[in-house]
Every structure is written in structure tokens, then in C-alpha cells.
Amino acid sequence: MNRKPAVERLYDRFYPMLQDGLRFRNGSKAFYQWIRTEPGIAKAKVLNVGAGPTPETRFRRLRGEVGHLVGVDIDPVVLTNQDLDEAHVIDGVSLPFADGEFDLAYSDWTVEHIENPIPFLREIRRVLKPNASFLLRTTNRSHYVTMVAAYTPHWFHRLAANRLRSLGTGAHPPWPTFYRMNTPRAVRRNLVDAGFGEVELVLLEPDPGYLVFSPLAFRLGVLYERLANRWTWSSRFRLILLARARARPGADHLSESRS
């Protein structure tokens, strides 16, 4: 990631490096702590849905910390992911696994790209053991970044998104987005309808990584971040939406009856 020196200085000022090696307001910390603190995670068979290429940051890598890590993606780049013990290219819905095969599943920055969430979620629930956890991280539609993305065409995303984040030329272009489950209400409704229960939701505002193209824009993003994190009522405008739910035993009949 190539950022201007002025932006780097602002990052060091407002988002200093903490003792754990992550910056203040890191956008991945809470999600991967959730995964790492799941009971029995060290021996668990874990499914990463939408695994993509090898994660750039060490904190997002779980291989060796879980029993067996399997990744799936519609993009063949998943076969190059060195953080996985096993990788599969899928059609976007069907998973090549037996019922109840996994102890935990997670999906990081993936569900915003899913056009039909219910079949996608039902298939994940199918391959989970009863009461196993499914965790997801996605973007909140009430945030300014997501609102801009939702109302601009995909050709603009391909042109601008990686540049605004100062990603290198080798970065994968953004995938099409649909935002079918990108509000707390939509996430909860879709998870329940797909056979999950005990849904827990958290909204977070991280550092303004989408605004690193300009020191002025970055300062405005810092102001927004401080305000969004100051009050409970302002949580509805935070960027990151986390969810954790459990696969309900015997939910197949219920979820199918609602289709």
C-alpha cells in the first residue's frame, strides 16, 4: 500500500501502533478475535467462505491456529491462498462438503457480493454442525462509503476503488456488489430465515482507509470516525457490520418451508 507521506504522518498521529502490533481502530481486530476465541478453535475444522488470495496481514491468517482450514471461492485465485490447508473453487452457492462437516464457518467482506443471500446462507448452515458458529464481516449500508458505492455503477468501482485506497496495480479489481444483507435488520432476517439463531450484531467505525488519497480527505474521515464512535446512537452510521450466529439443529424443514 503506497500512501503519501503526509497521510502516513496522520496515520501515526491519530491511529498509533499498539502493543499487539495493530493500529488503533484496526478494522480486522474485533472480527478475528471473535474467531480466535471460539471454544475448541485450536482443533476445529473451519470453513472460510470467499477466501480469495493469501491475506496480506498476518492477523487475518488462521492456518496453524485451527485444526484444519478449508477455503472456497468462485475465483480460482483461492487455489494460491497459502493460508489454507485445503482450497476449492465453487459456483457461488453449492459447497462440496457433507452435512455437518464443519465446526465453524466465517465470511470476511463477502456477503455484500451475494445476490441471493438465503440459498448462500442455507448451504453454509447445512455444512455446519448443530450449534456451530457462523461469523461474517460486511459493510453497513448507512455508512457514507457504502452509500456512495451502492449508488454508483460497477465500472466506476473498477476505475476508482483501488486508487482511493492506494492499493497497488496488482490488486484484484472489486467484485460486483448487491448489498442484499447490509443493514442490521437485513442481516438478522436473512440469518434467521436460513436456519440460524442466537444472532449477535456489532457495528464498528475503523480508521478512514478509503480516504488515504488526500490528507484533507483523511482528516475529514478522522473527524467522522471520532463522531461515529462517540455515541451509542451514532453506531448506526459505522462502516463495519459484524454478525455471529449459530446453526439451529433441525432447521432444514423450517427454512425450506419459508421459501
Given as residue ranges, the uncertain stretches (5+ residues, pLDDT < 50) are 253-259
- What shape does the CA trace take? globular
CATH class equals Alpha Beta
The name CATH uses for the topology is Rossmann fold
What's the structural domain tally? Answer: 1
Fraction of residues in helices?
25-40%
Q: Count every helix, treating DSSP H or I runs of 4 or more residues as helices.
A: 8
End-to-end Cα distance, whole Å, is: 44 Å
The overall pLDDT, averaged over residues, is 91
At CATH level 2, the architecture is 3-Layer(aba) Sandwich
Tell me the strand percentage band. 15-25%
The named CATH superfamily: Vaccinia Virus protein VP39
Strand order of the largest sheet: 3-2-1-4-5-7-6
How many E-type strands?
A: 7
Major sheet? 7 strands, mixed
Give the structural class.
Answer: alpha/beta
Question: Helix and strand succession?
Answer: HHEEEEHEHHHEHEH
Radius of gyration: 18 Å
